[in-house]
């Protein structure tokens, strides 16, 4: 418990200090950028960032603040925003109308989605251990609920976006990650995917005079030869949602072809944990009735 408290203090402490002691000033937007991070398992995150120059600050390091998508699209380089900074560390900044609670609210969905299977595994084993103390019936009920949760998580995992946007453009490939393994481990001979796939970060201008936007899409590995760092690929997009653009070409069979392996891994963990729970439950000494 002290370890988790220490982690919470280290993560939340600086942000809460900024809320309580930050100084609000006006800052000029120096640069806009979309920060996309593609993980080794194919999951990805996006942040909308502004590099700003607070009025009166002489630090050579430019603070960076995060904004939501709508505000990011409204702002232009040279616009002014209100930011909250601390005198000792001007690089540590946030928009004046945002707080630690807003930051946590934005971060929570990303953390929960990225760690959903770890949460399922750890939480399920903990529930099985607790239910096993109550008897076999409780253990089996918990196991069924655990299995249903796995099915729900699988159905909630987004598949490939429909490739039916009415407009077309040429996009520059900023990054490509080839996903070859079901689990992100150091033992590269374990759980090799039947169908590897490429996840790409694609930058393009959706309309004349508009800012560059970044889309993320995935196709089967090897079905789009020009999908390389610095290359150019055609994309299709809806002008109302340009960041949902998709690669115009390539195959997208990786979800269906890799699902049996996923079912085998999750099903194996489920069956093994349930079996161990049943064995341990039966070995528990029965309480004698007085």
- Given the helix and strand composition, which structural class is it? alpha+beta
Radius of gyration: 24 Å
Enumerate the strands of the largest sheet in spatial order, edge to edge or round the barrel: 3-2-1-4-5
**Proportion of helical residues:** 25-40%
Number of helices: 6
Tell me the total number of β-strands. 10
Overall outline: flat
Strand content: 25-35%
Q: Low-confidence parts, pLDDT < 50 over ≥5 residues?
A: none
Mean pLDDT: 85
Amino-to-carboxy terminus distance: 38 Å
Q: What kind of sheet is the major sheet?
A: 5 strands, antiparallel
Order of SSEs? HEEEHEEHHHEEEEEH
Number of separate structural domains: 3
Protein name: DUF3592 domain-containing protein
Organism: Gemmatirosa kalamazoonensis
Keywords: Membrane, Transmembrane, Transmembrane helix
Verbal overview:
It is built from 6 helices and 10 strands; from the N terminus they run αβββαββαααβββββα. The relative contact order is 0.12. It has 3 domains: 81 residues, OB fold (Dihydrolipoamide Acetyltransferase, E2P); 78 residues, no CATH class; 85 residues, no CATH class. Helices cover 38% and strands 33% of the residues. Keywords: Membrane, Transmembrane, Transmembrane helix. This is DUF3592 domain-containing protein. It comes from Gemmatirosa kalamazoonensis.
């Amino acid at each position: 418990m002290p370890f988790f408290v220490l982690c919470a203090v280290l993560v939340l402490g600086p942000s809460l200090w900024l809320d309580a002691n930050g100084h609000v000033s006006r800052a000029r937007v120096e640069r806009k950028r979309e920060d996309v991070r593609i993980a080794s398992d194919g999951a990805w995150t996006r942040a909308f960032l502004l590099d700003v120059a607070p009025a009166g600050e002489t630090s050579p390091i430019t603070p960076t603040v995060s904004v939501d998508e709508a505000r990011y699209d409204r702002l232009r380089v040279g616009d002014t925003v209100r930011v909250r900074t601390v005198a000792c560390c001007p690089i540590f900044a946030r928009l004046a109308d945002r707080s630690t609670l807003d930051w946590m609210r934005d971060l929570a969905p990303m953390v929960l989605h990225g760690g959903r299977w770890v949460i399922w595994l750890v939480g399920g084993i903990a529930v099985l251990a607790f239910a096993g103390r109550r008897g076999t019936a409780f253990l089996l009920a918990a196991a069924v609920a655990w299995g249903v949760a796995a099915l729900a998580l699988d159905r909630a995992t987004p598949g490939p976006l429909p490739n039916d946007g009415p407009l077309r453009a040429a996009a520059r490939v900023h990054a490509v990650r080839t996903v070859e393994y079901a689990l992100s481990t150091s033992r590269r001979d374990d759980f090799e995917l039947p169908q590897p796939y490429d996840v790409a970060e694609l930058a393009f201008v959706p309309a004349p005079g508009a800012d560059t936007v970044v889309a993320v899409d995935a196709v089967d590995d090897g079905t789009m030869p020009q999908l390389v760092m610095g290359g150019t690929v055609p994309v299709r997009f809806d002008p109302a949602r340009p960041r949902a653009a998709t690669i115009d070409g390539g195959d997208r069979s990786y979800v269906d072809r890799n699902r049996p392996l996923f079912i085998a891994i999750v099903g194996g963990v489920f069956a093994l944990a349930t079996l161990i729970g049943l064995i341990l439950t039966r070995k528990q000494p029965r309480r004698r009735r007085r």
